[in-house]
Specification:
four-stranded antiparallel beta sheet; single chain; 84 residues; alpha+beta
């Protein structure tokens, strides 16, 4: 099976983030922070950051999420909070 292109890997992570983010929390200004193949040669590590806005516009903070994405299928295997 052919390996996905890096932009497809990032799009998989972004799509996953948008699908699992609660509707009460809106995300904006999504940025790609890191993209690197994992040493196992099968998966990619993707770090995305975004502005998370709660119920009130002044309730905004930058959040970081780390994703492990399978390189052949683009399937997101995990999403964790990235501490900075």
């Amino acid at each position: 099976m052919p390996t996905k292109e890096p932009r497809e890997i990032v799009n998989s992570a972004l799509t996953y983030l948008q699908e699992v983010t609660p509707s009460i929390q809106r995300i904006s200004d999504v940025r790609l922070e890191e993209l690197a193949p994992i040493e196992d040669g099968v998966n990619w590590r993707v770090v995305l950051s975004y502005d998370a806005v709660g119920e009130f516009p002044f309730d905004k903070k930058r959040e970081y999420k780390e994703f492990i994405v399978e390189s052949n299928t683009g399937k997101v295997l995990s999403m964790t909070i990235k501490k900075v």
